[in-house]
Each structure stands twice: as structure tokens, then as C-alpha cells.
Design brief:
The protein is an alpha/beta fold. It contains 10 helices and 17 strands. The protein has 2 domains: 246 residues, 3-Layer(aba) Sandwich (Rossmann fold); 69 residues, Rossmann fold (3-Layer(aba) Sandwich), CATH 3.40.50.800. The strands form 4 sheets. Strands 6-7-8-3-9-10 form a 6-stranded mixed sheet, with helices on both faces. A 5-stranded mixed sheet has the order 14-13-15-16-17, covered by helices on one side. A 4-stranded antiparallel sheet has the order 2-1-4-5, covered by helices on one side. Helix 4 packs across helix 5. The longest helix is centred in the middle third of the chain and has 16 residues.
Amino acid sequence: MHGQQYNIELSQLSVGYSQSDGSPLEILKEINFSAATGEMVALIGSNGIGKSTLLRSIAGFQDYFSGDIKINGRKLATVSSAEIARIMSFVSTENVQVANMTVFDLVAYGRFPYTNWLGLLTPGDRDIIHESIDKVGLNGFQNRLANQISDGERQRAMIARALAQDTPVIILDEPTAFLDVSNKYEIFHLLQVLANEKQKTIVLSSHDLNIALREVDKLWIVTENQSYQGAPEDAVLNGWLGKLFKNEHVEFDLQEGEYFFKKEFKAKVKVEGEGLSLIWTLRALNRAGYQIVVEAEPDFHIVANNNSWLLKSGNSVHKFHEIYELVKTLNRMTLEY
């Protein structure tokens, strides 16, 4: 089975849920997305837009209103639940509370599509479980109770369960939601390896856009009225990422590849220098709300070189050995200017 390619195709798909009065509520309409074997795809959109609903529908956990979900050309509705469990694994953001269950036991649930009717684990099953635990960095946690570990550790255990299920398609809803920055990158890297080397089809939702832009093969972008798909670079060049925020004070920087708050400029600054000192000085000044000028007459002049900085204003010159003190002094001088 795992030598076969597993492509996902969403055609004119509309998803949603039933409201308290029983009436249907469509939240995403006419979605046309695809994910190919060996690709890692990130689903991007604002909170409440319907990302979790879309992922649950793809995984077969939730009905959809119209359109089609196809796996290798087969409509998902025609695939049995037993076969789906061998094709797709799903990782949710829900905080799983399980009493008296160890991390090993939690991960072992991933082997249920392959165990016999008694649910007995073979030595091969146990090897896969231990390998999955090790891959997510939880080696030594096998006998810890799942309800006595941190949210981030529990999230890793849920990802390990999906790895133990050993499916060609993995669907993850905010897999890095409870992780610190270092662990976010580790999980993204792990998923990237599974996609590239194991040729798994991976679809995940994420708010870690800066990481996604660097690591994934494709973006699925959903807004209230439209949807877009393509390489992260396509999303930048076509201006799709700028449509994610309604806030007029937030823009996407096409050069830096990240969002920023628009600010009123405090003063004009000319900056000279080279290397990393220059690059990070420019970032700090942009963050602090200073306009960088080349030809225009500056209010201040900064020279950045080899982790030292000169700040010139009129006849005064100040020397600094850290950007923090440079910006702090520049702010004070701007108020006095």
C-alpha cells in the first residue's frame, strides 16, 4: 500500500456544520485544492474561518455539504472506515485527557488498524511504537502518564500516534500549537522528512506562517470569500498573504516575507555599514518606527560595523556596543529633536 501514491483532490467542496436548531451552516464554499504524494501542505487562514472543519471533513470525521473529496480519484464517501484508517491518520489540537494511560499506550492506539481482533501488539508493532516515540523526541517518556505531561509533550505524543499508524496520508490540525519555537521547527522538520523521504502526503493547518513559508511545498489559503493554492513563493508574488488580515495596520512585507505593523515614522535615519550588523540594525530601526533614507537629508546618521555603532547628530557622536542602547538613545534624542 505504501508504495502507491496518495493524492488528495478537493473539488467545489463546501463544508460546515449543523447549528443548534438543526439548520446547516456553510463556512467554506467551493474549495478547489490538491495535495500530491510527497508534499507537505499548510492550510492557512484566520481563526474561526473553518480550517479545522475542512481538515475533519478530509479525514472522514465530518460530513460535507457539496462537492467531492477524492483520494487517488476515489470519492472518500465510497471508502470504508477501516480502509480510511489505513490511508489517513489525524492529529487534533484537542487537549486529550486520558486517565491512567501511559505515553506508550497512547501511541499504541495508532496500531489499531493492523492488530488482530484481540488488539494484541506484535514485537513489530512495539518496535514501530518505540521508533515513533523516539522520532518526536519523547524517548524516556514511554511509562509517563499521558495526563501528567505538558501540553507540548502531549501534542508530540499525538503526533507519535499518527506516525505509529504509519499511513501514507497524515492530516494535522495545528500540530505545533503548544510547542516552543525550537520544538516547532523540529516538528516541521520531522514532517518535511516524512514527506520528502517517506513520500507521505502531509496536510497541516498552522498559524506559524514564517515557518510555513520556509518549509512547506504548498499553501492552501482560505479567506471569507476566496481560496488560493500554490507554492509559498506564489502566495507572496500574487499578494494572497495580504488578504488574510482585515486590519489596516497590518501588512505583508514582500521583501522580508513576514507581517508587520505599519507605524508613523519618528525621524529619518541614514545607515551605513556592512554584514550582519548592518542587516539587524536596519531591522531594529524599522521595528522602532524610523524611516531609512539614502538620498534625503537625514535627522540622524548611524554607522554599523563589527558589532559597534556610531550615532551622529549634528556635532555630537555617540558610540554603542549593542543595538538596544543605540535605539534607546535614538528614541530619547528624537523626543528632544
